[in-house]
Write a sequence for this structure.
């Protein structure tokens, strides 16, 4: 391991340099760890991996708090090692998902802007060890994060002990990329969060810390895991076209200009494809105020379409990582990384008036959205920041393909099997079939529009029948409760949501 | 009608004084009206009532936008007259409710902080006539509202025409009570909303307006409808005790002081009773940052418990109205009324760190809350501000009696029949049985706690059985979808949610 002491500019800290194994040995059964990491970027790697090694010989459990999902298979390995008691606020690992759904460990699915308040207010268990990845420590005592900020500042400020992973594989040139701001406790000491434009800087270039809490500094050399984005396909391209059509209507109506409004796009292939669709559009001088900055954001910067991008992490494919990080000076003045409390803060989202684009697992005929639970029970990833954005955005858009599993699943159902975003928070839904603009519509109006515009033709009659029968019972939001989950139960029993007659037709 | 011209201090406007009938005659089929009024307080009365009269001889329909619910039977009469096309964002009238659920007219149930953004952004139809109640018009051109502010400022600013109802039954002394602030459009011109403490004033004492848009001024003399609050009963007192016990635990844990945090309490008898419970508590120097200021807030002021109350309206019983308004100088410096966009703004709610107390219709074993739809279909009142507060509060509390309809309905069900507040937004649930503090808990943990602490004993086994069976299927949020609404469907079929064996036992 290359111990590049220049990365720790405050030389008083040099004595604290230890191996990952030693740092991992300090962690005791029942402790709570606050790990850096947001959407596979900037995660603490060496100490968690050493902890997994330790678990081969010892029995213990810890709570794992992070920014969001982490890479380097850390969630997989922690889960397999059986050392997790509670995990929050987000994950996106296939193995961990299995363990969560089997009840092997607990998972608390939180709005990504909420975790830091809960820690600050002493509601969650005290963080025993903040373990955060850094490119360097400055002479005046600041941790310079790597490719994400996440909840690291909150962890560092409120933890009893701090371990810093200096990752020499991450660019020292990231110094100056970040803008770290931690709000005061709620109440009269808290001031407005002064972000009034996408690129505005309000904080410090790194995370200030109490040097007496630093227990160890570990040198590492691991690259971030590349993103797992699938390239756009025919259907995601169609969705992008529908979304662009909607945006054009907004411009025509005078509600947006060709600059649009700052864009947030959730992680995932669909949102990525939708952003990609903007490259060849007439829209220009765009700004991004998002959580994760994916390939498409940099493609838009490269295409001269995006002037500035504010995010919480940079999560790229292998190829794009090489391009961006090898030429970082070209991007530096167009980027800022902020804590997730600031990227996702209702105050800032509402002030800036974002266009928010997130992925739905399923939505219902009245516009309620399920982002998290497969068939109402099994956790996929978590709500992430979608709630922070959808509730407060100027336009909250949810996208999904109209069918899944070769047509055996309709993504539009009578009643979503889990509600993450209510009818009050969903403005526009988009599938490859079309879009439905639900703003200002009553539930009965929404149902007709969704069925006509978004549902796959193979499910249109089935959903229409449900709606017509429900209408006969009346109500603000007509439903037949005994049939509300009939699509899901039919799928569980027969492997398809499609009515038998329909399948034969 | 007493035309007290002193109430219109800008004498250039005196020529515009007309009868309510004449003002009502200007309204044309298809128009959108923005009426003042929030929780039965400060509603425009004369012109809407004249419009109802006109409907006896003419056929027309209009959209009715308000702050929230209105009094003086206006919603009832408008509904009965059959002249509503669309109504938003809230209502609480028994007759209107019937018409909504029958599909006679459309109702859009919105977060109370959202309507003004939608109007400002041109998403909702343009308001043709803003019709707002005032105590006076100042010489320098401001409308001084009466007992509520609601959406009046937004309506006045964005409407094509303005009609002002000068209500001489409302105290001229209200001048100085209000603090009117309208945010700039979303984007770079919008600045932080500078409310950093409950009593901070940030705006003007009245609503500025474009005099050229004023089409008419109508003199009226109607008192507000009194509140319909039911006095505390044994069960609401028990709920108040549980809530106080929770707050004491928070103080013990160092998360709150005896000043607590600014309190928001939703309208309704339960929330009112809970506030009443604070009169004899040790808590003191309390502050209220709420929507509606009910009897209990003034009782707390009278008891020296509340130092300051910020609201959007003052809605009192007949008796309390007399006491407060006859002695208004005693209360003046402890009160401010703000637009609902500011009382309910996520930015301010989160900054101040409120304790938010709202009423649930039902909640489920995982902590999702239904605030609006009886048996998933029939609208009760609307979500009101509960979403604005619950999502952003420091502590989001929902209260409800554990059973209703003589025990035939359990307010705790396997799966709520409509979701207004998701598991991500609900911190504490309280019934007369006890409270469950859900913060930081995974769904499986929440279910046990809710069943043990909040469910009525007559339903405990039935909900436990559901949970145990659901656990056997696994998942982050275990459910048996085919039985998820079994409580509701059983009630629809048999008149009780109770299992037969249980009822016999």
């Amino acid at each position: 391991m290359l111990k590049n002491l220049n990365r720790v500019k405050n030389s008083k800290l040099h004595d604290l340099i230890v191996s990952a194994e030693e740092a991992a040995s300090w962690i005791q059964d029942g402790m709570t760890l606050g790990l850096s990491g947001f959407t596979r970027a900037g995660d603490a790697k060496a100490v968690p991996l050493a902890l997994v090694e330790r678990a081969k010989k010892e029995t213990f459990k810890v709570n794992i708090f992070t920014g969001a999902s982490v890479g380097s298979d850390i969630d997989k390995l922690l889960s397999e090692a059986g050392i997790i008691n509670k995990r929050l606020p987000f994950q996106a690992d296939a193995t961990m998902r299995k363990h969560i759904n089997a009840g092997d460990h607990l998972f608390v699915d939180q709005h990504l802007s909420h975790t830091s308040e809960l820690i600050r207010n002493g509601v969650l268990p005290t963080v025993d060890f903040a373990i955060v990845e850094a490119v360097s420590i400055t002479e005046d005592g600041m941790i310079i994060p790597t490719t994400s900020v996440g909840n690291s500042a909150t962890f560092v400020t409120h933890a009893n002990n701090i371990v810093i992973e200096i990752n020499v594989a991450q660019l020292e040139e990231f110094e100056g990329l970040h803008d770290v701001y931690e709000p005061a406790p709620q109440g009269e000491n808290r001031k407005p969060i002064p972000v009034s434009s996408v690129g505005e800087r309000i904080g410090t270039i790194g995370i200030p810390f109490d040097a007496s809490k630093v227990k160890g500094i570990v040198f590492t050399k691991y690259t971030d895991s590349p993103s797992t984005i699938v390239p756009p396909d025919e259907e995601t391209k169609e969705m992008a076209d529908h979304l662009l059509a909607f945006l054009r209507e907004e411009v025509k109506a005078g509600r947006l200009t060709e600059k649009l409004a700052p864009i947030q796009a959730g992680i995932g292939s669909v949102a990525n494809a939708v952003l990609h669709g903007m490259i060849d559009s007439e829209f220009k001088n765009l700004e991004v105020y998002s959580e994760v900055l994916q390939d498409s954001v940099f493609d838009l910067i490269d295409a001269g379409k995006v002037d500035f991008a504010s995010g919480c992490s940079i999560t790229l494919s292998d190829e794009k990582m090489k391009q961006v990080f090898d030429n970082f000076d070209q991007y530096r003045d167009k980027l800022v990384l902020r804590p997730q409390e600031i990227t996702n803060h209702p105050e800032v989202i509402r002030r800036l008036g974002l266009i928010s684009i997130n992925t739905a697992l399923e939505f219902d005929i009245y516009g309620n959205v399920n982002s998290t639970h497969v068939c109402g029970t099994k956790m996929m990833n978590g709500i992430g920041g979608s709630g922070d954005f959808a509730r407060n955005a100027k336009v909250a858009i949810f996208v999904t393909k109209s069918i899944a599993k070769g047509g055996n699943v309709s993504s539009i159902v009578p009643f979503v099997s889990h509600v993450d975003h209510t009818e009050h928070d969903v403005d526009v839904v988009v599938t490859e079939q079309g879009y439905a603009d639900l703003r200002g519509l009553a539930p009965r109006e929404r149902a007709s529009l969704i069925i006509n515009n978004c549902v796959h033709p193979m499910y249109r009659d089935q959903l229409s029948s449900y709606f017509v029968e429900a209408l006969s019972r009346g109500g603000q939001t007509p439903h037949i409760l005994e049939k509300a989950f009939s699509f899901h139960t039919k799928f569980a029993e027969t492997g398809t949501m499609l009515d038998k007659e329909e399948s034969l037709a």
In short: Chain A is about 30% helix and 20% strand. Chain A touches chain B through 86 residues (CB under 8 Å).
